[in-house]
Design goal:
alpha/beta; UDP-N-acetylmuramoyl-L-alanine:D-glutamate ligase; Protein-Tyrosine Phosphatase, Chain A; 2 domains; eight-stranded mixed beta sheet; about 20% strand; globular
Length: about 450
């Protein structure tokens, strides 16, 4: 199978309205020989921050000498971004070969389950297969949605991380935080260590009850491990960063770490990652503070307050729910200087678009409403109706490239442009900037 054929096959597995169930992935894994049981696992879920925590935890463990598989979703440009070992994306030929091994078993699993195996389940199976073939010590697995019936929950994890719990994916997970908590708590397995940065007392009680039921040990941010401080560090022309200090689970301090990401929420994510890595590595006596710091100082998480250019400052962030928008707004207003903020936004159908726009509109000088390439992208004209309800100054430009051109013109050199609303919107921004770079290089060659 060629890589292009593998991508085409995966695209044929995209289905909507999938019934929540582990039956399909369970049948597929059994037919594969349960590769997910050949290594340890750390599973990460939460409404926001799970990709960042997954990347950071993977980087720390790799720096401590482990061979680490990392599985995240969604991807921005290539499906290969979802699967990596010690920071190296799965090569195209290995991805195609792994899918070639898995594909015949997919048909058999579908016969057994009586339902079509989904895109996400196939890619998860490919990750399980690749990690086994790569002889990883541990796999860090980011849940795609929820946790209880997520395909990543086939792995019996040693450490379970729940970053936070807010309203998102309400059709699939439930329309209250308590219902969503129940789904996410499904990753807490017997005897594991459960790490969380959730602060709501009632939700923490629910997590504690789950831990008691399965004999898991619960570790809570602010009680068992802490963020001592975070100081934003912004020098024009240099990568964004903040200095953080973390008190770990055993009381040791990880001081003056230069985290190459902005926002207090990323500092909290880093603290969760330190706790997760320490919970896994301590029994093996590999907790090296210098390795932890080195890993965090070099970690990269695409599409999270990522700076694309300066003058004007252009950042992109995958905030796709109200909580994410609030954290983004706090970081922008607290850690950037600009004369005018222009927000370019497109949002998917199943999100609280009005709530997201309300938050972004409260800090923006102007909001430009556009659309991304996802079939679930909300029409820019409908977003405009929400802006009118919230009395937000806005412009409508469905074409993303033209929306960016308007943003450049309106922001000016001293302004700031924030592209957000979805990781699909972030992907659009990446395509736009690549095309701009190619056009500039072609002009220079003439």
């Amino acid at each position: 199978m060629k890589y292009s054929e593998a991508v085409d096959y995966l695209d044929s597995k995209i289905v909507l309205g999938v019934k929540p169930s582990l039956d399909r992935i369970k049948a597929l894994c059994r037919l594969m020989g349960d590769p997910q049981d050949s290594y340890d696992a750390i599973q990460v879920t939460g409404t926001n921050g799970k990709t960042s925590v997954s990347h950071m935890t993977s980087s720390i463990l790799a720096a401590c000498g482990y061979r680490v598989g990392l599985f995240t979703s969604p991807h921005l440009e290539t499906v290969r971004e979802r699967i990596s070992v010690n920071g190296r994306l799965i090569p195209a030929e290995q991805f195609a070969r792994a899918l070639g091994d898995v594909r015949p078993l997919v048909a058999r699993a579908e016969e057994e389950a009586g339902e079509q195996v989904t895109y996400f389940e196939v890619v998860t199976a490919v990750a399980y297969h690749h990690f086994m073939k790569s002889s990883v010590d541990v796999a860090v697995l980011e849940a795609g949605m929820g946790g209880r019936w997520d395909a990543t929950n086939m792995a019996d994890c040693e450490v379970a991380v729940i970053t936070n719990i807010a309203l998102d994916h309400v059709k699939e997970l439930g329309d209250t935080r308590e219902k969503i908590a129940y789904e996410k708590m499904g990753i807490i397995n017997e005897g594991c260590v459960a790490i969380t940065a959730e602060s709501d007392r009632d939700l923490l009680m629910l997590i504690a009850e789950r831990c008691h039921e399965v004999g898991a040990e619960m570790k809570v941010f602010g009680r068992d491990f802490r963020l001592e401080y975070h100081v934003p560090y912004r020098v024009p022309g240099e990568p964004p960063a903040q200095f953080i200090s973390i008190t770990s689970l055993d009381g040791r301090e990880f001081k003056d770490i230069k985290l190459p990401m902005l926002g207090k929420h990323q500092a909290v994510n880093a603290a969760c990652s330190v706790a997760a890595a320490q919970s896994y590595s301590d029994p093996r006596e590999r907790t090296d503070p210098e390795a932890f710091a080195r890993a965090l100082e070099s970690v990269k998480v695409p599409g999270r307050l990522e700076i694309l250019s300066e003058r004007p400052m252009v950042v992109m962030d995958g905030a796709h729910n109200v909580l994410g928008a609030e954290k983004l707004a706090a970081a922008i207003t607290g850690e950037f200087d600009y004369e005018k903020l222009v927000v370019v936004v497109s949002i998917l159908e199943d999100k609280d678009a009005r709530g997201i726009l309300r938050v972004l509109g409260s800090i923006a000088g102007e909001v430009i409403l556009t659309e991304n390439r996802s079939a679930r992208s909300v029409a820019a004209t409908r977003l405009a109706s929400y802006c009118r309800m919230e009395h937000i100054e806005h412009r409508v430009e469905p074409d993303f490239a033209r929306a960016m051109e308007l943003a450049y013109r309106d922001a000016g050199r001293a302004g700031m442009i924030c592209v957000t609303g979805s990781l699909y919107t972030v992907a659009e921004a990446r395509v736009f900037f690549k095309q701009q770079r190619v056009s500039k290089e072609m002009r220079q060659d003439r």
